[in-house]
Amino acid sequence: MRYKSVDELRTNLAGVVSLDDKTAVLDREKLRGAAIDRLVFNGVFHEDGEIKRTARDAVRRSARALGVHPASILPLYEAIGRGKAYGFTVPAINIRGLTYDMARAAFRAALRNQVGAVIFEIARSEIGYTSQRPAEYSHVIMGAAIKEGFSGPLFIQGDHFQANAKNFAKNPQAEMKSLKDLIQEAIEAEFFNIDIDSSTLVDLSKPTVRAQQQVNCEVAAELTAFLRGFEPEGIAVSVGGEIGEVGGKNSTIEELEAFMEGYRDELDKRGKGLRGISKISIQTGTSHGGVPLPDGTIARVKLDFETLEKLSRVAREKYGMAGAVQHGASTLPEEAFDHFPRRGCAEIHLATGFQNMLYDHAGFPRDFKEEIYDFLRRECAAEKKEGETDDQFIYKTRKKAFGPLKEKFWNLPESFRNEIGRDLENRFEFLFKKLNVVNTASLVREKVPVDSGERRVA
């Protein structure tokens, strides 16, 4: 499946895609067949940098020619903040492994239900353990969009671009540089939605709520001002902030107000009139991935919908934002999901549930699963806590196999990939309906202008 040379790649695309100065898709059906599969694969796995870059460039330019436009969701969120759009919660989907197949399943469900309000995202931590740098992630998502015939604004997001509290305490300048480098890398890869998470720097030992949030305010403002300095022409990146680290204590209105006042003050110091955040992540009782019990099942969570509703209302009415963001939600019970649009939740982040569907699927090859689990017991042994069962340890660490074994996941049997693809598609459709984003494609096209500018991505 690997191209032997750039010339072979170009020959393979003859009569399908013209890669001259003005890219044209000459045969859409052939492109959506084996051609796009091969381009996406080589843009991820090829060892030759020139072939990898050419494959990625072909996908990016073909996407543009077919009307797939990486975009900022900010205009839609500003409309929500003004009361001009409402009644739905935008799903943000983290894909850690089997990325091409999972994204394809999401696009199929979106197309069948006319969903435009959906985000594809990856967190700073996930970039590390899944070995998916931003340029690779956007390449695969755009390839999946081409494969399934999706067009229109495409929202790709940097989730939890999070300050490491220990690294920040040791050397704040170095940690800030790491975050700025990542933000720049992501925007250059056409991530036009960035969630800044400096909630890890909140210090609850301080005497006032404002003092507790102060460093969070400063870091969020500095990173916002930084990214505003190199936005592509015609695009205002959608930025999110966070006031409560997921898994910690539940957030309060006082914390939201203290953060926003401090954040706005700090942002003004860095440039009058700079656009601020469009949403705010809060803690309502969930934890990332859920809490595994000794048998590997997940503890039932009591989610504080009252807090979510109150903080969303304050975020909209007082600060013009879209509302609050719910993290750690994919493992919640099914009956929870239709509460989010009713409570005014702006965005919900979904990750581990899809990973669980993959690993726990009856058709997942048993020998490969044993290979993965043996790898984890060997390579992640230091992470096992005293008193933790093997089931708990495996549940918490199995996400870390996606990077080292990425190509093996990619080459799982086609019959299994088709089967899990159908199950994922049904799951995405369920979530889209519960979150009330069905038939939002026309609203997104109305509110979100598309950018046809050409940018070269590594």
In short:
50% of the residues lie in helices and 11% in strands. With 458 residues, the protein is α/β, with parallel strands linked by helices. It folds into two domains: 6-65, no CATH class; 69-358 and 412-447, Aldolase class I (TIM Barrel).
Give the percentage of residues in beta strands.
5-15%
What is the CATH-assigned architecture of the largest domain? Alpha-Beta Barrel
- Report the C-alpha radius of gyration, rounded: 22 Å
Derived from helix and strand composition plus strand pairing, the structural class reads alpha/beta
SSE string, helix = H, strand = E?
HEEHHEHEHEHHEHHEHEHEHEHEHHHHHH
Low-confidence regions: 454-458
State the helical fraction. 40-55%
> What distance separates the N and C termini?
21 Å
The number of distinct structural domains comes to 2
Corresponding CATH superfamily of the largest domain: Aldolase class I
Could you say which overall geometry the principal axes of the C-alpha atoms support? Answer: globular
Whole-number mean pLDDT? 93
- Largest sheet descriptor: 8 strands, parallel, barrel
CATH class of the largest domain: Alpha Beta
Question: How is the CATH topology of the largest domain named?
Answer: TIM Barrel
Strand order of the largest sheet: 4-5-6-7-8-9-10-11
**Count of extended strands:** 11
Number of helices: 19
